[in-house]
Amino acid sequence: MISVENLQVEFGGFTLFDDVSFVINKKDRIALVGKNGAGKSTLLKILAGLQSPTNGTVSIPKETTIGYLPQQMQLKDTRSVREEAELAFDRIHEMEREIDNLNAQLAERTDYESEAYHKIIDQVTHLSEQFQMAGGNNYHAELERTLLGLGFAREDFDRPTSEFSGGWRMRIELAKLLLRRPDVLLLDEPTNHLDIESIQWLENFIATRANAVILVSHDRAFIDNTTSRTIEIELGHIYDYKVKYSEYVVLRKERREQQLRAYENQQKKLADTEAFIERFRYKATKSTQVQSRIKQLEKIERIEVDEVDTAMLNLKFPPAPHSGSYPVIAEEVAKSYGDHLIFEHVNFTIRRGEKVAFVGKNGEGKSTLVKCIMNEIPYEGTLKLGHGVKIGYFAQNQAQLLDENMTVFDTVDYVAQGDIRTKIRDILGAFMFGGEASEKKVKVLSGGERSRLAMIRLLLEPVNLLILDEPTNHLDMRSKDVLKNALKDFDGTVIVVSHDREFLDGLVEKVYEFGNKRVVEHLGGIYDFLEKKKMESLQELERSQKVTDTAAPAEELPTQNKLSYEARKEQNRQVKKLERAIAESEKKIEELETAIHGIEEQLATPEGAADTSLYTRYSELKQSLAEAMDLWTEQTMELEELK
With contact defined as beta carbons under 8 Å apart, do 416 and 460 qualify? Predict the structure, then answer.
């Protein structure tokens, strides 16, 4: 579909891409990976046509449509959420207006036999055909499904976009992009502003509905669940792996080991050759051989090995000052904004040394409760902080509190104490402030860079309760590993608000779920929580299908083992039932597609184009196909959850 040939990109003498070539095929699911600054976002911009390469060509067929979601964007504040999302259907609205205008002209004219009148009829016929094929009569349902999937409530649809934060505006832009159904979808960090449920919805959308997809993401679980091909950008070159990310990691390690062996062998050969030249340089009898070896040295293409900086992989927080046994105790905590209740009856106790996660849909109160704990906003109920608790707090707005006139290095040096000061350069490098970047003034940094700098400061302060609100949004995979390992070794208490499943996995041992105005405690890690949520959904399904005998005495209720067995039995029954339903849906979709294809062939003939009943039938079939596809999607999602 898209061919990239001999691509070269240079910035001020620095070569970002050197003679890069690859092909993007229909239905490809590609993850672009590499260090920050390797050129991932630049490559997306080139594919989107927003940036030109220094040399080389990007061949894109004329009819191919491309949708691009950048990391940052601006939305106008003059529309509602629904109106902004409907911009995805601008072409449909334009055709609708043209058809109405032409019909109005026909109603006013009386020259029924004239050539001009018949020309307008032909225009109306042609536009009506295009309108039906573009889904002109059923786009509203698709729009609502997409907005709901990305976390909006129905009551949000008519609210102005100005009432939403930057993260929610990014969701609106993502909705527009998905609704356009481009042939190639380019996504730059699409999960940064999504909660876990919305990420899972997007994963399913990409798997079942998208065409070709190329994405950049630092969310390992997301790219592993959505891609089947991994393109690594390294030292100006690319390495194309036809496998998903987790398999690429293994293959890359093997490739680097081979690269190291080849490099070591070459270095030995070079050393032997240079030693021979040095030994016999001034012997006349060996001059021919010496000149031959010198020419060999000049011709050898030197093997490059990607430098892997392991200096910072064991970064540790300063020792946590001793605190009371229970750093945070919540009793009947509630928070409202006017008549809008965020949560109520919140009761929990966090023990010293525990690492817990706050998860749930955006807008359910995770950050609000954090602000209550920080005593930044008023609330009802009681929040007790234990004796000697010293809080280290990271949130997006923390980045705005940095001194804009200080350099990056000075900002970190100001809080660093003891031996850690000798490793400041290494710390900055681990968080993408290596080399000259450490001398930048804070005022010239982007929002993401400021967030990373605020995170580094937090790593160096002696605290015993860390509260991190979406700490990984602007970190690459290596920096996330540095932070995660430091948090695992931290001997204090940690509260993390995050949607990054891979980051939370192995880090937290307790999950607090925010939803329905409540906060529910779940023991275990993040995947234990997600698995339990699926089981709860299954048991809800089971309960709705069973006829409960309210008069049954308590001793006759099934035991936990019996219930577990019955649940598994019910699960197997549901799986088989859904598999049959999916097979029937696939058969129906095939029949509808065949029927639609038949009508399209008829519409391509002059006789068919003049038959208005065909357009009606065509529209009905397209509507039925859309409904069948939606049903199939729901069934496959339900089957995945059951399994």
Answer: yes
Determine the Cα–Cα distance for residues 273 and 258; give it in Å rounded to an integer: 23
* Residue recorded with tokens 């065409």: 211
Pick the closest to residue 486 from 526, 427, 527 (CA basis): 427
**Cα–Cα distance, 230 to 265 (Å, whole number):** 29
Q: Is pTM, for the whole model, over 0.70?
A: no
Please report the DSSP string for 177-223 in residue order.
HHHH--SEEEEESTTTT--HHHHHHHHHHHHHT-SEEEEE-S-HHHH
Sign of the torsion angle spanned by Cα atoms 262, 266, 267, 269: positive
**pLDDT for residue 345:** 94
When computed from its CA atoms, the radius of gyration of the chain, rounded to whole angstroms, is: 30
Region of 39 on the Ramachandran plot (φ > 0 left; ψ -120 to 50 alpha; else beta): left
Contact status, residue 199 vs residue 361, Cβ threshold 8 Å: no
207 vs 199: CA distance, rounded Å: 12
- Tell how far CA 30 is from the center of its chain: 13
**Average pLDDT along the chain, 643 residues, taken 10 residues at a time:** 90 83 93 84 91 91 88 71 84 79 83 83 79 68 87 88 79 87 90 85 88 91 93 89 92 85 87 85 78 83 64 65 91 91 94 94 88 93 93 78 86 78 79 82 79 82 90 80 88 93 93 92 91 67 48 41 54 78 84 83 73 76 78 74 66
pLDDT at residue 557, as a whole number: 39
Calpha distance 162→181 (Å, rounded): 26
**Dihedrals φ, ψ of 266, to 5°?**
-65, -40
Strands 510-515 and 518-523 come out as antiparallel
Model pLDDT, residue 449: 78
Give 355's contacts (C-beta < 8 A, 6+ positions apart).
487, 488, 493, 494, 496, 507, 508, 509, 510
Structure tokens at 192: 């940064």
Position 29: which residue type?
R
Q: Nearest Cα to 410, choosing from 424, 430, 391, 392?
A: 424
Estimate to the nearest angstrom the gap between the alpha carbon of 277 and the chain centroid.
56
| Cα separation, 8 vs 621, whole angstroms | 48
Residue 79 one-letter amino acid: R
The count of C-alpha atoms lying within 13 angstroms of the C-alpha of 239, restricted to the half-sphere facing its C-beta, is: 16
